[in-house]
Amino acid sequence: MNANKVALVTGANKGLGLEISRQLGQQGITVVLGSRDPARGQAAADTLRAEGLDTHPVKLEVTNADDIAALPAFLEQAFGRLDILVNNAGVMTDKQGDTADAFRQGYEANVIAPYFLTQALLPLLQASPAGRIVNHSSVLGSLATNASGQIPPDWLLPIYNSSKAALNMLTVIQAQRLKNTPVKVNAAHPGSVKTDMNQAGTLTTAQGARSAVLLATLPDDGPTGGFFHNGKPLPW
Ligand code: NAP
Q1: Which one from 15, 60, 137, 160 is the annotated catalytic residue?
Q2: Structure pTM?
């Protein structure tokens, strides 16, 4: 069994996923970088290895059932454990227009994939003394914030916002199901971070990764079933 904790981060080849992987690696955690493009995943893992971190790529298209099915055996054989799952991969398909196809793609990646990936990896996470699941959500998925009128009209996105609201619900459901176990399940909002998804973001990926990293490394007396930005609770 790997001596260090092992984390899997999805969508880890760039943006917030890459930076979450870096910050977890800097804490001595072995990080498996999930990436749908093996070459980009290898390049990202190599970049972090050159920084002295213990990182490994795995091909993971989160909407591909075969990729998900292969993961538990791969993690078991390669590392013998999984302590942290960060469901980071996500898309903002509203950019393609308000179509049924865009809805399906958005929900596949942002809702259905993290649910089934989590289900597949639960046995390994439950075998960990301190399993942690982080769903990378967004304040745009908060019903309360959308209803408050604080969201500018351009960001009232039917697909993205409703898919992150659904991801928040899955966070609550998984946390309730696991409440009598050591596994903690929480949702993170990174802030408005400049990435390929959000060119208008004002935070760096280093700043934005912090919310997910805090939840991925919660102590045993930390919260479960919550929604947080930089350790502070957000309204659902
Ligand atoms: P990004 O730079 O566009 O990165 C998204 C990552 O997800 C990429 O690695 C992408 O892979 C991967 N991905 C997308 N669909 C995938 C799939 N089906 N299978 C596997 N990987 C997939 O975006 P980001 O800003 O870093 O976003 C990361 C997460 O934070 C997302 O869940 C997003 O909703 C959330 N978030 C971001 C912000 C922000 O301000 N940036 C705010 C709130 C929440 P490819 O490179 O192959 O496309």
Answers
A1: 160
A2: 0.98
